[in-house]
Amino acid sequence: MDRPLPPADELVLVDRELARLDAHRSQLLARRAWLLRVLQAAAPPPEAGAAPGRPVAESTPRGAQNVLLTLGGVLLTVAALAFTLVSWGTMGIGGRATVLAVVTSAALAVPVVLLRRGLGSTAEAVAALGLVLMALDAYALHRVALSDTDGLAYTAVASAVLAGAWTAYGTALGRLRIPLPVAVVTAQLPLPLGVLAADGGALALGWAALATAVADLAVALWVKQAAVRTTAAVAAGALGGWALLTGVRLSFGSPLSAGALLLACAAVALWVAWKVTRASVATSVAAGLAVVAAAGGALRPVLPGDWEVPSYVLCAVALAAVLRTSAPRGVRVGLAGAGAGVLALGVAWALPPVVAALFAPLARTAPVWSGDHADPLLAPYPSTAPVVLLVAAAACAVLSRPWSRCAALFLAWGTLTAVPVALDLPYAPTLALQLVTTVAAVLLAARPGTLTRGLPARAEGASGAEPTVSTEPAKPGPSAAPPRWPGWSPASAPAAGAGPVSPRELLGWSAFGCGLASAVSAVAAALDTRAATFTTLGVLLALFAAVAFLADGARRTVAACVAVVVAAGLVSAGAVAAGFQDQHTALALLLVPAATALIGGRLRRHPAALPLELTGAAVALLAIVMAVPTPAALALVLALTGVIAAATALRPERRTFASWTAGLLFLVATWVRLAVWDVTTPEAYTLPVTVPALVVGALRRRRDPESSSWVAYGPGLAATLVPSLLAAWVDPDWPRPLLLGVAALAVTLLGARFRLQALLLLGSTVLALDALHELAPYVVQAVGALPRWLPPALAGLLLLAVGATYEQRLRDARRLRERLGRMR
């Protein structure tokens, strides 16, 4: 441990440290003052708007200078145009030459002086005027001295001369930014205009555009000035695209000569793709399109007319094979994209037969089972459309991607669907092929694992092979994964979050959708004949019933529901074939909801049980609608449907909803039957509601004595008392009012005895109104016999009595309200 210094020595050290700190502080303060002076000298002067009361400047001096220079250049250009076009003919040849030489030379020489003095913007404006004057000089020279020369030829030569002159001028005055881009733009004209002047034709014009584009590319790649490079690149793209479109258009008429132009365009585009990485994809796409157009155009003359589009498609597929080469990525992507684009156009060309095959049976005009077949929706289509779809399907199947497998599935399904229309097959083979397509698609949907073979492990993920039972014990903790038991599948497992759809599910649902579309079309086509209808419906019923057992997840449920719909169609077809009327067919249809209720009872809480039963309920609703025109049959259908609902109510998971549904169906069936019997007494309709409702209310009060009497007995009593009261008021006889009064009195006494608010108020109200209805005639007669002054006098006495005992009446009313409130 260090010993402390003596106080005298420690004081000396403290003084020295304080002196050192003072010196360092003085240095920092001096440095701070110098930094502030430097910053103040470098800061811009305050704007005029900063001073209060002075207007804010709306433009900078540089902007105002540019506006003035631009306006001056425009005015000088207008003046030069006016002089050239209007005043030119009033001067002699000497004056003309002098004016042209002086003005143009001055306009081109002044920027040199201006640049030396640092006036760059002014030099740009004057140089632009000089360029315009040179163009006007060329125009004036043609009009005066070379008027007999061909206009296109003269323009081509003049544009070449001007481009060269402006290039030399811009190179000499490197600080000017206008001359070189203008020279590049002007250089686009000589070759195309020269070809037009020589009547070279479209092919020569395309070659001229391509040659000019190559020159532009050279400028864009080797010139350093950004404006010149951008201008040259844009011009190269425009002229190169023009040459490419020209070659494509000419390939339909003269494929060999146009093919050379297209291949040259492809070579230039590929060269650019290899040189410029940023433009490799776009230029490779152009090169690929040129190659496909050239190859397809060369094959067109040697192939039949129906094979023109397939030839282009085959060339596109061959071009897409470049993906497996070692070319740069941008080149491979661009060429493959061009092939994919041509392939997509070919698929679009081949889709009409698919649409016609699907929708032609639905556009039915002939009666069912008439033997007449649907007319085609389009004129005879090339028979090679399925070939295009098949080639596209094979190309997509080669790629190991989920989306490509899905596209291959759709294209293969479209191929089978388009074959009958493309080949104009007879009715029986067409229907057979539709059924085969449906069966294949639906079975693939049941087991989509075959569609995911060959996919990368990461792409397939959880959609690959079925998982096996793990023998290792799971680690404890909240993150431990649940055990995977035999029969477990990813589709049946609960979803964790909102992750993407697995390839297995995507392919499965795609195949199922294709199968459903083919099934609908096949059923519509099968309605032409009776045998075809029963055969098709039978095959589809067996198919979807099998898939309901083979598939997993939601596809099992959907397949089961579709099987129920097909079964309903089969029952309806059988009833119609047996000569049943609509009401009898409705009774036959009830076999379907009965079967679904039985199957739902076996499935219990299986996820497919509820959708299956709801589908059966929809069939039952259809049966009810079919029986509506015959009320007697409607009552029977409603009663049988109620029996099915009552049987379903025996299951605990369906008890509440099914019991209410059964009661409602029985009630409506009773009403319909009473209407058939011409029963007009309202009690016949209301008592079947009141009695069960009161029984249910009594059972509820027994389970829950605290429940309100309005909930337990109010609906049931009101269902009979209110309609009977309305009927009694318009009934001229005495039995109905008497019986209603007795019933209302009994209800009132029961409410008072058991202290039930609903019974007491409903009964007393109905009893009072019924008594008023019975006493009304006598009251009217008595009032008519009394003197006219007596009613006002009685009313006045009543008001005096009420006023005298007002407080007592309030207390009585309050006690009555409290008593009623204590009732249930």
Mind explaining what this structure looks like?
The protein is mostly helical and 824 residues long. The protein has helices at residues 7-42, 61-87, 93-116, 120-144, 151-172, 179-186, 190-197, 201-222, 226-250, 255-275, 280-299, 308-320, 329-350, 352-359, 385-398, 402-423, 427-446, 457-460, 503-526, 530-550, 554-577, 582-589, 591-603, 609-627, 631-648, 655-676, 682-703, 709-712, 714-729, 735-754, 757-785, 790-804, 806-822. Helix 11 runs antiparallel to helix 12.
Features:
824 residues; mainly alpha; 33 helices; 74% helix; extended
Topology:
Elements (H helix, E strand, L loop, with lengths): L6 H36 L18 H27 L5 H24 L3 H25 L6 H22 L6 H8 L3 H8 L3 H22 L3 H25 L4 H21 L4 H20 L8 H13 L8 H22 L1 H8 L25 H14 L3 H22 L3 H20 L10 H4 L42 H24 L3 H21 L3 H24 L4 H8 L1 H13 L5 H19 L3 H18 L6 H22 L5 H22 L5 H4 L1 H16 L5 H20 L2 H29 L4 H15 L1 H17 L2
Helix pairs in contact: 2-4, 3-4, 4-5, 5-6, 5-7, 6-9, 7-8, 8-9, 8-10, 9-10, 9-11, 10-11, 11-12, 11-13, 12-13, 12-15, 13-15, 14-16, 15-16, 16-17, 16-19, 17-19, 17-20, 19-20, 20-21, 21-22, 21-24, 22-24, 22-25, 23-24, 23-25, 24-25, 25-26, 26-27, 27-29, 29-30, 29-31, 30-31
